[in-house]
Amino acid sequence: MRRAEKPKAKSVKSTRPSSGIGDEPELPKNSAAESPLLWMARRKDKSGETMIGPAAFAAGERLRADLTFSGMLPRVTMDWSGRMPGARGGDGTSLNPTEAAIAARQRVDRALRGVGPEFSGLLLDLCGFAKGLELIELEHGWPARSAKVVVRLALASLARHYGYADATMGRERSAMRNWQAPGARPRMTNAPFESPGRG
What is the pLDDT at residue 109? Predict the structure, then answer.
């Protein structure tokens, strides 16, 4: 007799805008079966709308990644990543692990202050501890299916803090910008370019 194998949970890698400096380590992977954010982003109502939009999902994943990198959440297992303490990346621009953790803690602190005390604890439960909506309702003493509304508001506030929006708004084109003083013109000469030091 063969045993029926359990389907494996798919691993999801979140995306986060990069500063381009190389100071951000690879984002932690999260199981699709464990992520309440991913569940909310995939869950559709009768009209076909998801519970949270892409901006709210990206904001929640960004907070989750920063909480993970900061080391603020309790660990259950040993860290087997193999990094040496104080080691920098090969390009020399990466932060060492201590600096990266401090920077992540500062980002978490700014984000939680940005959403206010009303939503900060809820976002820690949802994004950091991956608590589902039912558990959040139970712990806060809220009526059934009320956490959905509060979580939407909290994630919308977090997305606003990070500057994320579901749709781009603004003019189609921006005005031409000039960094010179008004009336200034570049100096043009007909002479071939001569490098300094040649005589």
Answer: 94
Give the total number of structural domains in the chain.
Answer: 1
Instruction: Count the neighbouring beta carbons within 10 Å of the beta carbon of residue 97.
Output: 19
Q: Which domain holds residue 154?
A: 32-76+92-162
Could you tell me if residue 173 is inside a domain? no
Provide the pLDDT for residue 176: 61
What are all long-range contacts of 103-107, with beta carbons under 8 Å and residues at least 24 apart? 103/23, 104/66, 104/67, 104/69, 104/70, 104/71, 105/70, 105/71, 105/72, 107/66, 107/70
H helix count then E strand count, the chain = 6, 2
Chunked into runs of 10 residues, the chain (199 residues) has average pLDDT values of 46 41 49 78 88 92 91 73 54 71 92 94 92 92 91 94 82 66 71 60
Nearest to 17 by CA among 59, 53, 71: 59
Residues 6+ apart with CB under 8 A from 131: 36, 125, 139
* pLDDT score for 166: 82
- Whether 1 maps to a domain, the answer reads no
